[in-house]
Amino acid sequence: MLLTGGTTPWKYLNTEPVKKYPVLSDRLSCDVLVVGGGISGALMAYVLSVQGVDAILLEKSRVCEGSTSANTGLLQISNDCPLSN
Question: pTM to 2 decimals?
Answer without folding.
Answer: 0.62
